[in-house]
Amino acid sequence: MKSVKKSKLSSKYSTLLLLIVLVLVLLVSTMFFADYHGKYLKYDPLKDVSNDRCYYNASTPIVLIHDVSPKYIDEMKEITEILDNNHYSTRTYLFVIVNHANENKLTDYPEFVEYLHELDKKGYHIQYHGYDHIAGEYNCNESVAKQKLNESIKILNNCQFDTNTINYVITPRYKLSKDSANVFLNRNFTIIMDYYILKNRTDGIEKIIITNKEYTWYMPENCTEIAKNVSIVDYKNSLKENNQFTLSIHPKAVNYGNGIEFLDYFLRKTNYDTLKDILSGEYNSKEINENKK
Ligand SMILES: [Zn+2]
């Protein structure tokens, strides 16, 4: 009789203990995932790119999508599917045209805006390309540049984007007057050009050399294999020079021929090779720093 009572009591205790452990596990994992998720979403790899070789070691490529416009919604969906599959959301920057050709105002395309918000939630970076993308629109004077930028920010605000986090710009055709450059830099934009970026630091403007390549401008099908090989060589050289590698792509141009297959190959291969080489010590940071001296 006594032993039955005892075992009943101990089973009661063990159930209680199990419950406590379960609640604790649930609490800790919720906290962990909330924290991880928060960091994951805020991760901004372009922010770290620097000339300071002691501090910065170039790694996996960063993808820059130019000409993000409602005109290319279908092409964009095909591109982002490949990026999603390769876990590239936080390493991808979308350069948006707010009123493409002066007849595609973002506010008139709620489906496209919603799609961009979905990408934003996944960790993609919504950034700025231009107002209408007509000719080299930012090859202009200060007052025109200010007017275009103000109008663009207004449209982006109206589409509920957090304009505080929109601080990277690629101007159409990389054309940019000195006046326009100052307008962007004074508003703390980082300017991405064809082979370098400009950052406004407290002690002046920093110019950082990057390796910015585009292989898929309506690439002929018989060039697919050559492009694959060349891109991997370019990427590895870039790592050795400790320059950040950025892959520029344009919707429609990359969707042509085998462009999408190339994109998938490049992202897969660089992810795999970087990991493999880092593990084998090939891109040891000390080695890179010494090579630079
Ligand atoms: Zn463009």
Automatic annotation (TrEMBL):
Q: Identify one Pfam family in the record.
A: DUF2334
Q: Which InterPro entries match?
A: DUF2334, Glyco_hydro/deAcase_b/a-brl
Signal peptide range equals none
One of this protein's GO BP terms? Answer: carbohydrate metabolic process
SUPFAM superfamilies assigned to the protein according to its UniProt record, in alphabetical order: Glycoside hydrolase/deacetylase
* Top-rank taxon: Archaea
Q: What is this protein called?
A: Deacetylase-like protein
